[in-house]
Structure formats: structure tokens, C-alpha cells
Amino acid sequence: MSRDSLINAVRSLGVDGLLLVGDSICDADVCYASGFLSSDRFAVLISDRIYILVSSMERYRALAESRADVVETTSDYSMRSKIAELGGLEMAYANVIEEFVSARGIARLGLRTNTPAYLYRSLMEHFDVVLLEKPLEKVRAVKTPEEIAAIKDVQRSCESAMAVAVQLIRKSRPSGEMLILDGTPLTSERVRRAVELRLAGLGCETLDTIVCGGLMSSSPHSRGSGPLPPDMPIVIDIFPRSKSSRYFADMTRTVVRGEPSAEIMEMYSAVKTAQDAAMGCIKDGVSGADVHEAVCRTFDDLGYTEREERGFIHSTGHGVGLSIHESPSLSEHGEMLRSCNVVTVEPGLYYPDVGGVRLEDLVVVRENGCDNLTAFERELVIR
Amino acid sequence: MSRDSLINAVRSLGVDGLLLVGDSICDADVCYASGFLSSDRFAVLISDRIYILVSSMERYRALAESRADVVETTSDYSMRSKIAELGGLEMAYANVIEEFVSARGIARLGLRTNTPAYLYRSLMEHFDVVLLEKPLEKVRAVKTPEEIAAIKDVQRSCESAMAVAVQLIRKSRPSGEMLILDGTPLTSERVRRAVELRLAGLGCETLDTIVCGGLMSSSPHSRGSGPLPPDMPIVIDIFPRSKSSRYFADMTRTVVRGEPSAEIMEMYSAVKTAQDAAMGCIKDGVSGADVHEAVCRTFDDLGYTEREERGFIHSTGHGVGLSIHESPSLSEHGEMLRSCNVVTVEPGLYYPDVGGVRLEDLVVVRENGCDNLTAFERELVIR
Predict the structure, then answer these.
(1) Are residues A118 and B113, on separate chains, in Cβ contact within 8 Å?
(2) Measured between CA atoms, how close is A270 to chain B, in angstroms?
(3) What sign for the dihedral angle of Cα B49, B52, B58, B61?
(4) Where in chain A is the domain with CATH 3.40.350.10?
(5) Which H or E element spans position B158?
(6) Where are the alpha helices (DSSP H) in chain A?
(7) How far A50 CA sits from the closest chain B CA (Å)?
């Protein structure tokens, strides 16, 4: 992100400053605004400049690593004596924050709606507080070239991990109702572990990984367990995050080891066509709703008309960045797409008695189309 | 944790119910109270029973996996039509939460001080809200046998990863000012990557790992970078979390490849003695402050009297569980220890012109002493 676009975004909110408090591992806004990675809570104030307030132990790291213009520490505001004086950590911290904000001459203070209640309650007494729902959503959705490069980098790792999964399934042999590799059943757990090990080796972490075979694959959020079957779809959905850049990537492939049914082959072909249709209409100025509509229309034309409980039961895609799900959304109420948005394109079809098929690529919205950040074949049957 | 002890803990807070809202990846209280793992926000109400409110997509998984007595979904409270009606996701969610809580006949509602401001503001209008700072801290500090088993399990993985680090350093050869392994410098980054790869293979994730050599080791929170030196201390601090149980473990060793200085050998011996002194006095009914005092006294007796900027500059230890730092604390203001607390015991000495030494084990407090969950040698010089 560009520092100036962040400052301008806050200015446009009609407040003198926006205060964020959180740790940058769990709080993507804090990570975004500070560029500073810490599992300890700290504060970021975006006003005429970017100010951060960290513990004194973090001072030098913050000076070296954060994108803040000004780094201050809780010791600068006598945190220790305030704890003794006010009789509690949170009372003291709220008091420190109040002085940290006041020092910038701020009257009208923006706070996110998810600000901790004790801070909200305390800051309300000193400032004209405005609660804002996701105030940085829009600025975060438009990625800089550096952010796109970081996401692309994670997608490379994602592809490498996908190749590991596909290779294990390729090397396995059908035996009755399960796939066997090196004498033991090839399970969801075994493939997931191999995928996550590859990702760890590439400096990525995962919340989870979907490796889901057979009829279970008709439930799009099943993570999968037990032996993987031959002749049935196996959905592999990998969404790693770089431990250093903190950006996510996301991709899904569906494969079959053996002979898929005619129904699955047709579903796969339809999903591919729907994905191509979405790609074909994504560009700056088109809405996420339009893209979703194009996918729905494609499915309708091919006879897949159901949208609840079975058929195409989820949205077409979502933004990806420092959060795995962020703006913009490719869905019924999807907002206008803008150049440099990064979104997944992931149509799928799900039938409890047949199985599920999903294909997911990650693309960058451009003025006249989109760039696909994903370079991985779409082949249903692997041999 | 035991379900009943959680319900009793909430009863003792003087409220009719305690409401937690958060995701169970980032929010340890939510993970603890629900036993349900989800990266999506959900609500837990602890009252006469444990109630959870999840999205309808999570219903079956919550029924199967959570420890709640009652599972409800946002669809049960018409979330979708409320979004349209009230014009926003958070407005709708606050309204759903209000009905979810009201349905239990609750008047006096406990909320954590870190409850999102929009919920606090909205719930205040309907309930007699009491803001509570870390209301589950004490109950979480006393571990059940199952929790202790889970932590021990992670500590086994931690030891396995420590063995990887030590083995790499052992196999390296001094060459000038750096250690060389397989023809290239053995760096902090290389050891860290090997440690994290082993942990990933064991189903663990890491926020970070300290591998810090030379004079840099005198800064206890430096993660370390660049080539590791011979004849100087290398501090290795590993604190993984199980991706499945969500419990952490924590351990530190300090090693030297080559010949340590006399100063480092004496510091190592003092830290070992201080650690033994702490272990010798930990038991139910002793305070964390007493344990810390015993460590300080040991260091004083051995001539290491400095406590600020150099010498023994941090506390003796902290509780470990679903958070890497939790109650009780072994420090100046450390509270009373109770049977089945799990705490680190990690004295250290740090001198900018000499280097740092730290040893950290993880122990369970018992009625008449403590059980060490750590089985890893304490040897400074590795050959």
C-alpha cells in the first residue's frame, strides 16, 4: 500500500485521525497500516502522518521495520507508574492512548466498530468518537504492485504444494474402494500433511487445507478425512499465508484418479466453462454482481439451475490480501471492481449423490481484463 | 477444562451469563469455552449451560465437535432478513446476539472488556452489562489432565525440533568467525527453517522461533539473523502450538559450538542453579513472586546482581496453555500458584559485551512440588 493513499483514505472518512489497536498477527488492518509484525497488541494512529505506539522493548524493531513516521513507546507516557496509580493494566493503557492521541491535536477520532469496549468507553469521554465499520476495506482492496508481487509469490508456493498433492494421488493405485500408496491407504490427512509440509518449507503457514474425496466433496467446506477413493472427485483447496509478507493466496483443483462418471465429467466441463466466463468479464468498472451473474447464467445454460442446497451454492469469489476473505466480493451483492483488486474466481457444483467439483484461480483486475496469477493445469483425470 | 468448572467460574462473577464473541483461532477464551475451532467469528454464552451461535454452514460441525450443550445458528434468528431490514451486517448481528442472549432470560450480562464496541454499545441498551477484565483467566490457569496431556504432547514436538537445531549446530564446523555446514554458513535462518519444518511435520505451527547467536543473544527477544558464530552462545527458544489441540509448549536451550569463554561458562552454571532453585520451590500455595524472588536471590548470591538493561532483565516465567503467555506469572507481582498450573521456568543472564544465556523448561505445579514436562539435556558445549 502507499502511505499517502492510506492517509488520504482516512481523511475522506471525515475524522481527524483513525486509531487502530490490535496485534498485527490477528488484525489485518493493524498489519496493513503499520507494516510492523508483532504478536503483542500495539496502537496505530493515522492522521497527518502515521504514528505507532509500541512497548519499549519493541522500539528499535519498530523504528527499523515499521512504515510509521513516528514511533513512540508506552514508557514515553509513563505506562508503569500509571498502572500503579490507576490500579490496572487496561485503565493505564486507555490513559496512555488518550495522551498519545491528544498529542496530535485530534478532536474527532475515528475508531473501528470492533475496538475493545474499554477503550471505546474511555476515549468517548475525551474525544468526539465516530465508530466506523471496516474503514480501511476499500483502500486495502486496491493493491500496489508490491502487494501483487507478494500475493503472486504465495500463489507460486500454493502451486508447488498443489503439485505435491496431485503427485501423491497420481502415484497411488486403486484397490477396491480406496487409493493405496506405498502399501497403505492414501488418506486426506496424509495428503494434507504433505501439502502443509511443502508450504512450511516455503515459509508459509496454513489455517487449514481441504483435501476432500468422494461424496463428502459435495459439501464445499468439508476439510476431508479418511481414505481417498478412486473414480471419484477429490477437491483440493489450498490457501496459505506467507509468514513474512503476511499475504494469502488461494487455489482449488478437483482431480480424479481412475475413471470419473459421465456426470462428474460434465460437471467439470461446466465449471471450467463458468470459470472462463467469469474471467472473460472481469475488468475495472464491472461489478462483482455482474461477474457472479455471468457464472450463474453459464450454469443455467448448461442445465445446472439449482442454487440452494445443491448445484452452485456459494458465491463466485472474494478478495484476497492480508485476509483470506476481503473486499471485493463476486456475489449477488458484489461491489464495483477496480484495477488492482485481487480476487478468486471459484465456481463449483455440488450434488450430495454425485460429489463436488470446484476450480479456483486468483486474478488481478486490470483496466481491460484480468491477469491470472495462477499457473496450474486444469485436468480432471490424472494419470 | 471441565464444563462444570467453567459454569461455576462464570457464576462466581456475579452475572447471569458471560458472552464471548470472537473466532477461536485468535481468541483463546472462545476456543476454551467452546472447544470448537473456527476462523469465523461466533458467539458463546456461558450461563446455566453453554450455548453457541454459529453460521448455519457450521451447524453440523459445531454439533459434532463443540462442547456446547446447545448449538444455534444465525439463521435461527433470521440473520439474512435482519441485514436487509437493519441495513448492515453488524447492526443485524448485534440484534441477533441480543435475541440469542434474551432467550436465556438473562438480565445481568458479563462482557469482556475487549468486546467489540458496536456489540457493547448495542447490548448496553438491553441488558445490565458488566465489563470484566480477563474473566476466564483463573479458570484457564488450572489445567485438567487432558489439557496437561495436550501440552506435554506439544512439548515432545518441541524437543524433537530442538534436537534438529542442536544436531545442525553439532554437525557444523568452525571456520573463522562462522559455523559452516555442507559448505555454506550455518545461519539463524537456516536453523529456524529446519526447526519449523520439523514442527510442521508434527502438526505444529509457530508464531516465530528464536535462533540467536553471538552478542545479539544478549537481547532476549532478538529472533536472530545471519551466520552463527563459533565459541559464542546460541540461544534457541521454540514455542510451537498444536494445530489440532491449539495448546502451546515452550522451551529454550543455550549452546556453544567450540570453546565458550569462562564468563559464559559461569553464566551458564548460574542460570542452571537459578533454574533448579525455582524448580525447588514451586508448589501449590507458593506465589509466583516467591519463585521469582528465589531466582533473584540465587543470582545475587552468585554475584549477578543487575536487573535492568543487563543481568537478569526479565521475569522467571509465565503460564502456558491456549495462549503462549497466560496466568500465573512468575514475577515480582506473581500471584499464588495452584495445582495444575502449567508454567515456564526460564531464568537468563544477558550482557551486551558477553552474550546471553537462557534455559527454559515447562512444569506442572503439584501439591508438593512440580512435574517437569521437559525432557531435554542442559549441556552448554555440544560436540
Answers:
(1) yes
(2) 25
(3) negative
(4) 3-140
(5) helix B145-171
(6) 3-11, 28-34, 59-65, 79-86, 89-102, 117-124, 137-141, 145-171, 188-201, 262-281, 288-301
(7) 23
- Nearest-CA neighbor of A97 among A33, A173, A45? A45
Nearest Cβ partner of B117 from A57, A114, A203? Answer: A114
Query: Would you give the DSSP letter of residue B75?
Result: G
pLDDT of residue B3: 83
Could you report the per-residue pLDDT of B29-61, keeping only the tens digit for each? 999 999 999 989 999 999 999 999 999 888 888
Domain B142-372, CATH among 3.40.50.300, 3.90.79.10, 3.90.230.10, 3.20.20.70: 3.90.230.10
Preferred mutation among B121, B190, B210, B222 to probe A, highest tally of A CBs within 10 A: B121
The residue with cell 500465573 is B328
Residue ranges, CATH 3.90.230.10, chain A: 142-372
CB neighbour burial string for B328-337, b if at least 16 within 10 angstroms, e if fewer: bbbbeebbeb
Distance from CA of B280 to the nearest CA of A (A): 30
What pLDDT score was predicted for residue B1?
55
Reduced to 3 states (helix: H, G, I; strand: E, B; else coil), residue B97 is: helix
Q: Establish, for the pair of chains A and B, how many residue pairs have beta carbons separated by less than 8 Å.
A: 77
A84 reaches B (C-beta below 8 A): no
Q: What do you get for the CA distance between the two ends of chain A, in Å?
A: 43
Q: In terms of CATH architecture, what is A3-140?
A: 3-Layer(aba) Sandwich (3.40)
Contact A52, A74 (CB under 8 A): no
A196 and chain B in contact, CB less than 8 A: yes
Residues A339 and A326: their CA atoms lie apart, in Å, by 16
Phi, psi of A301 (to 5 degrees): -60, -30
What are A284-287's contacts with CB under 8 Å, separation 24+?
Answer: A284/A337, A284/A338, A284/A339, A284/A365, A284/A366, A284/A367, A284/A368, A285/A336, A285/A337, A285/A338, A286/A336, A286/A337, A287/A334, A287/A335, A287/A336, A287/A337
Least confident of A31-40, B56-65, B154-163: B56-65
Backbone angles phi, psi at B160, to 5 degrees: -60, -40
| Peptide bond between residue B328 and the one before it cis (omega within 30 degrees of 0) | yes
Report yes or no: B332 at the A interface, CB cutoff 8 Å. Answer: no
Task: List the grid coordinates of B42.
Answer: 461466533
The answer to whether the CB atoms of B201 and A203 lie below 8 A apart is: no
Which chain B residue is nearest to residue A206, measuring alpha carbons?
Answer: B205
List the grid coordinates of B225. 539473523
Segment A223-268, tens digit of pLDDT: 999 999 999 999 999 999 999 999 999 999 999 999 999 999 999 9
